[in-house]
Amino acid sequence: MKKKIIASLLLGSFALLSANSFSTQADKDRKALQAYFEKKFADRKNASTYFPYSTKDELDNNFKWGIKGDEFRLGSYAFDKGGRAQHDEMMDMPPFEDNIDNGKELYEKTPGMKKCFPNPAIAGDYPKFVKGKGVVTISDAIVSCAKDNKQKGWKLTKGKTADLEAYFANASKEKGKKINVVINSKEAAAAYERGKKEYYTQRGYLELSCATCHVQGAGQRVRNDILSPLFGHTTHFPVYRLKWQGLGTLERRIKGCNKNQGETPHKPGSTWTKELIYFMGYMSNGLPVDGPDIRK
Amino acid sequence: MKKIFKIAALAVMASGIVYAGSDLVKEGEKIFKTKKIGNCLACHAANGVKLDGPGSLGPKLQGLSAWPEKALYDKVYDPYTTNPISAMPAFGKNGVLDDHQIKAVVAFLKTIK
Questions:
Q1: Contact: B56, A53; criterion CB under 8 Å
Q2: A34, A151: one domain
Q3: Among residues B18, B60, B23, B15, which one has the least CA distance to residue B41?
Q4: pLDDT in tens, A250-282
Q5: Interface list for chain B against chain A, based on CB atoms closer than 8 Å
Q6: Best of B43, B57, B86, B88 to disrupt the A interface by mutation (most A CBs within 10 Å)?
Q7: Which residues of A88-97 are buried (b: 16+ CB within 10 A; e: fewer)?
Q8: Which ipTM was obtained for this model?
Q9: pLDDT digits (tens, 9 = 90+) for B59-96
Q10: Per the omega criterion (within 30 degrees of 0), is the bond before A127 cis?
Q11: Which range of residues forms the domain containing residue A61?
Q12: Is the predicted pLDDT of residue B15 greater than 50, yes or no?
């Protein structure tokens, strides 16, 4: 009898293994994160737990409650009514239209691009873990394709790369694509774990972690800026930022946030940045691709 | 004659000390409000102080005039000593603010009712 139970338990775990044991932990993390944010923004009643220092006025009048799933792709505009109104107004005449057009032209005219990316609707499939190379973000993939084809002037943070990403994101959005980051090897799972650890590590002389601001801090304010949740962060890049007066990739944004932590920014092409983005990407799995977008 | 000089000098010194007190408060207020130095307002509103968009990661500061100076100094130097899970940076321990700057900030905090 006992033996039978053990045997069936073993069989059970084998079945799990074949389903993809490498992403078991990441799937758990992602579900827990979504549940945390949905609970946090569910109801005005819980505000004193999650937003102990927010003003009564903003909680009563500026917050939208009951935010769920896909809505988190909007970052802080999911729950900040004032920011959302400004955002929607700007979206009437999106400042990134020319970037998408330019990206399309770059796609068609840059030697090798079409060969590297036969299908442009792939924004949600990155970052990928490639055996022998490690994590490859969409910016990495574009820049190395350009290099392999002897093209100059492609950077990981802005310019042509961001424009091409805008075209890819837009094509993915039009096709209704979702974020679909895959972890399918032991090495990939290890890269994910390293990225996660970095995300929760306090850094820089201010000893702030990404999570201080974008997990616990989400919904609270740094000065006038309402902090957005990690869940949904990678859905809408590249982003047109008013501060930049232009388009930037996720790599560019992270450089800026490293500075917020009082840290000398890590290089955009570094393993550190790539693995962090791998973790962030997985946390947004299943959400719709929604780039490019506008942020303050 | 000499004596008068001495008294005058003493008076200047004494008033100097008084001024140093309020200068210290001003210096502390500047550190509190300046992004590149203390940037305390990134997270804190302060009772009775006009600030341009204070944040809400930390509590609105109030009643600090009643705190002992040492408690305020310790909070700014290293908040983890009193609150191990504080989201507030350790300004002294991590060398963001030096001893004099923390004293200036404390002088300013002492004016918050």
A1: yes
A2: no
A3: B60
A4: 999 999 999 888 788 999 999 999 999 999 999
A5: 41-43, 52-60, 87, 89-90, 94-96
A6: B57
A7: eeeeeeebbe
A8: 0.86
A9: 999 999 999 999 999 999 999 888 888 889 999 998 99
A10: yes
A11: 26-94+184-295
A12: no
CATH at residue A81 = 1.10.760.10
B22 CA: distance to closest CA in chain A (Å): 26
Q: Are residues A152 and A193 in the same domain?
A: no
Q: What is the pLDDT of residue B35?
A: 85
Euclidean distance between CA atoms B80 and B88, whole angstroms: 8
How does pLDDT run across B97-108, given as a tens digit for each residue? 999 999 999 999
- Of A174, A203, A220, the one marking the end of a domain is A174
Query: Angle, to 10 degrees, between the axis of helix A186-199 and the axis of helix A24-40?
Result: 30
- Confidence (pTM): 0.89
- At residue B21, the pLDDT reads 62
- Would you say A35 and A229 are in contact if contact means Cβ atoms under 8 Å apart? no
Q: Say how far apart CA B97 and CA A199 lie, in whole Å.
A: 26
Q: Position of tokens 């093209």?
A: A151
